[in-house]
Design brief:
Helices cover 63% and strands 5% of the residues. It is mainly α. It has one domain (4-344). The chain has a 3-stranded mixed beta sheet. Helix 1 packs parallel to helix 6.
């Protein structure tokens, strides 16, 4: 098992360095303290102020608490995206600074930094590769695989791909439960255990302090809606950026990293305020092409380079239609729904 830092370096070295798109992105990879601290500062400030107001409004009306949960969940999501950039070593200028900030955010968002970063790096190195699915991505079966599987397996896959199940059950289970233990290959590594158990200890101290101050029931009334909303939003963003009709999936013989990034990752065409709320992760094709571009540089990178504006645009309305897609048709080279597949068989 390769170490964390070298694994990330291997991912970054997969770029086609002479491509115009990659060259255009390269000048935006320089992290700056001013932008990084500005975005982190107002995000964590918004998070703690809103959480404090949520506890205070429990004595007024729970409806008001739930309204504030939307703001707190937005800040929570932005913190997660900042931690995500730290995992790529792109948010702050120095490696150790990214690691320390990433570990702090990992406690606040329940995401063990190095453990999750390693999983996510695998996703970057294998996205769109049909022969390397399952590495930190949303499980996607081909039409042939689904049709040839047993009835029980088909039912399980239908449940898994149901958008309501994915957002309301799978999302919180992933962040609240599955991130508490090192799974897969990382279970065999000392670093995987240290990352997960160190984060768990931090969460125990952080949540334990809030429970000691406010009580268990108020804590649950505040944090359950925040975690539910933020985890659902994170999974939806992750899903929609790779699960659109004419996405990119190829076998390893014809798979290329650049095509997987530019054709297999969408540009989520959101209003600027929603790009802010989601940490600019909607510029996903650029992020996958060059993860060294920090989130706060992505809008400028996109706006100032026409070569990077040639992407699969998804509006909010169009993105909703992707929720029904579930199977990759290798012959037609597109994602289709269960209903489309049923019409054929």
């Amino acid at each position: 098992m390769v170490r964390y830092a070298s694994f990330l370096n291997d991912v970054e070295n997969m770029k086609v360095s002479d491509s115009p798109a990659f060259k255009a992105s390269r000048q935006y990879t320089k992290a700056t303290y001013f932008k990084a601290l500005f975005h982190f500062g107002h995000t964590i400030g918004l998070f703690f102020v809103t959480i404090g107001l949520m506890f205070a409004t429990l004595q007024v009306h729970y409806g008001l608490t739930l309204l504030l949960a939307v703001i707190a969940a937005t800040a929570y999501l932005r913190l997660f995206m900042i931690g995500h950039d730290c995992g790529h070593g792109s948010y702050l200028p120095q490696k150790w600074q990214n690691e320390r900030l990433g570990e702090l955010i990992g406690v606040l968002t329940g995401t063990p930094f190095k453990y999750w970063a390693r999983q996510h790096a695998k996703h970057h190195s294998t996205t769109g590769n049909l022969d390397k699915r399952g590495e930190g991505d949303v499980t996607t079966k081909t039409v042939e695989e689904f049709n040839e599987s047993g009835r029980f397996a088909q039912i399980c896959y239908r449940f898994y791909r149901n958008p309501w199940f994915m957002l309301l059950v799978s999302a919180p289970v992933h962040f609240v439960l599955l991130q508490r233990l090192p799974l897969g290959d990382q279970m065999k590594t000392r670093e995987g255990w240290i990352s997960v158990m160190g984060t768990n200890f931090g969460i125990f101290c952080y949540y334990g302090s809030l429970i000691a101050i406010f009580g268990l029931v108020p804590f649950l009334m505040v944090y359950i809606p925040v975690v539910m909303l933020s985890s659902a939003a994170a999974v939806w963003l992750f899903y929609v950026q790779h699960q659109f009709e004419d996405a990119y999936w190829n076998r390893k013989e014809t798979w290329t990293y650049e095509q997987a990034t530019l054709n297999g990752s969408s540009f989520y065409n959101l209003p600027r305020w929603l790009h802010w709320a989601t940490g600019n992760i909607g510029y996903h094709h650029i992020h996958h092409l060059n993860p060294k571009v920090p989130g706060y540089q992505l809008p400028d990178c996109f706006d100032e380079n026409p070569v990077l504006q040639k992407a699969k645009y998804l509006s909010m309305r169009e993105s909703l239609a992707t929720a029904k897609l579930a199977l990759w048709d290798e012959d037609a080279q597109r994602l289709i729904s269960f209903k489309d597949n049923s019409r054929r068989t």
